[in-house]
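Appendix C: a fully annotated inverse folding record. The material below is reproduced so that readers can follow the format used throughout the book. The structure is listed first as tokens, followed by the designed sequence.
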């Protein structure tokens, strides 16, 4: 048994501290030869801290990890950690394997799949995510909003179209995401210039939209959000819409 194999074996210890030490050591080594076993240990790990360390050890070797993670999706293992690791790797070749999990009835699993597809940015992401607009359960709605925001400018036009959807829930959700996209302060320093342009496009959609759900989303942002930039944008757009 090699040193790496002994560390993998230590991951089955009943002592979480021993598992954590083994996981940290594995993160600094070439674990490619035992990647399937490491992925299995990662997915099955009950301790949050140990699992995060194992995810770090897995994604440190993306070329070996990606096929092992995709293979793990077909096994009887907890799938959230697997999808989480795939989102960190961001390999476009894994998108097709992730898509079926975007339909999962478990909100947490579906949200991880949505986030992974958004982080990858594969062409299949938008047509996979958009049909879930208007999700009723809060956790599911929040997970989809987060993923759509990650897609950035590519989602603005489809969301504008969704403001004319027959379903009030879909219109409301689309308006909510557009309000968040209209906040230029949500973009980092490196993307600030392009972010301001995208925020301006989202604001223009909201300014001219006829759906009453836009007014509801703007009001909600002004009274319940804790992001100053978003509140300021929502307040300004409310005034502009009121003036017609």
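Designed amino acids, in order:
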């Amino acid at each position: 048994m090699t040193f790496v194999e002994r560390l993998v074996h230590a991951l089955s210890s009943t002592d979480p501290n021993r598992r954590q030490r083994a996981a940290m050591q594995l993160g600094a080594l070439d674990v490619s030869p035992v990647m399937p076993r490491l992925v299995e240990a990662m997915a099955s790990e009950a301790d949050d801290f140990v699992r995060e360390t194992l995810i770090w050890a897995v994604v440190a070797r993306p070329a070996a990890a990606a096929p092992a993670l995709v293979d793990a999706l077909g096994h009887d293992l907890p799938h959230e950690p697997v999808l989480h690791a795939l989102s960190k790797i961001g390999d476009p070749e894994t998108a097709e394997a992730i898509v079926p999990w975007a339909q999962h009835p478990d909100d947490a699993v579906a949200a991880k799949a949505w986030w992974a597809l958004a982080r990858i940015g594969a062409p299949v992401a938008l047509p996979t995510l958009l049909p879930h607009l208007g999700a009723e359960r809060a956790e599911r709605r929040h997970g989809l909003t987060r993923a759509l925001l990650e897609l950035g400018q590519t989602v603005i036009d489809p969301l504008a179209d969704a403001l004319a959807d027959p379903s009030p829930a879909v219109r409301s959700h689309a308006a909510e995401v557009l309000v968040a996209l209209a906040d230029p302060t949500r973009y980092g320093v490196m993307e600030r210039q392009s972010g301001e342009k995208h925020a301006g496009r989202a604001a223009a959609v909201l300014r001219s939209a006829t759906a009453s759900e836009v007014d509801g989303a703007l009001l909600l942002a002004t009274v319940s959000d804790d992001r100053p930039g978003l509140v300021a944008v929502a307040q300004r757009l409310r005034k502009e819409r009121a003036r017609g």
